[in-house]
Amino acid sequence: MKRKSALNRFTSVSVLAVILVMAACSNKMMSYSGDAAFKSGNGVPDYSRLEYWAAHPEKRDPSDTIPKPLMGEEKEKVADVFFLHPTTLTGPRENGITNATIDDSTINYKTDYSSILYQASAFNERTRIFAPRYRQAHIGMYGESDSASKYGAFYLAYDDVRRAFQYYLEHENKGRPIIIASHSQGTTHSTRLIKEFFDGKPLGKQLVCGYLIGMGVNKNEYTTIPVCQNGNETGCFVSWRTFRNDYSDGWATRTDTSIAVVNPVSWKTTTEVVSRSEHKGAVLYNLNKVFKHTQDAQVEGGALWVSHPRFPGSFLYKSKNYHAGDINLFYVDIRMDVSRRIDAFLSGSR
Fold first, then answer.
1. How many Å apart are CA 92 and CA 71, to the nearest integer?
2. 211, 178 in Cβ contact below 8 A?
3. Is the dihedral of CA 255, 257, 260, 263 positive or negative?
4. Model pLDDT for residues 141-192, shown as the tens digit of each residue
5. 143, exposed or middle or buried, with CB in 10 Å at 0-12, 13-18, 19+?
6. Is 269 exposed, middle or buried (0-12, 13-18, 19+ CB in 10 A)?
7. CB 306 within 8 A of CB 295
8. pTM for the whole thing?
């Protein structure tokens, strides 16, 4: 096994590049309603090998990056984050491709220098980060009309995620507190992962929090794991999808009360508008720049509604769907919340 493989440098990408990488991902949650057959093969990942991890504490990778304004005294890594990246297989579906190959260097680079660098790093202050490579479903599979092909693609991806998590539990965890974090397609899989391994299971006692971001997760998804009601709770989950407050194109409404939405500025589910003055900071096109007080935020119906963010160049961004910024618009808020919940977990509060 290779140890501490070095990267010469971490590159920044523009906010538009991040948007191009992760935008257009459907906000429609996949429903796993029974088993579906799928073919294995296609380069089954061996999670005992570091190359099958986009992030792992035994190698230097983009998740280790800390924005310069947030650097300080190194803190003990007292918990683990199992992070599932969003869809980065977004190109044409050549030859009817349904899933990524595990060793596609272009897709892996795209994943590492978008999601792992700009999203997973938000969780790294006091945690070890484990982010498996998996044979993700092509973005087009969310709208696939052939149900067998659709569910086969997502089950193949989940099978990799499941085996990666089992390997992590058997070889790496050793009783440490666990945070499950994800975005978009990652949340399609993490929602099921929590149900299978934590909900009503002994492992639930090790769950600090689930950050199930970028997909609509039902409030009653779990039997024993509730939606977090404040920033001091543990053994619960948070979720949100972000839209500008004048969005009206149909992915989310202000009337659907079945979806779990937690405000990542106040960390409450209440519906008041939380002022931009309470916002701790976004990390966008420049990884080493924190933009504070960029937008207010409000929970209403099935989504999080925000004002147009204020940062240099933001007037150029006309989209009202902020899916690509679900994590980055609240980067510092998330970082602080993770630390607070770890403290609460270690102090024994649930």
1. 40
2. no
3. positive
4. 999 999 999 999 999 999 999 999 999 999 999 999 999 999 999 999 999 9
5. exposed
6. middle
7. yes
8. 0.89
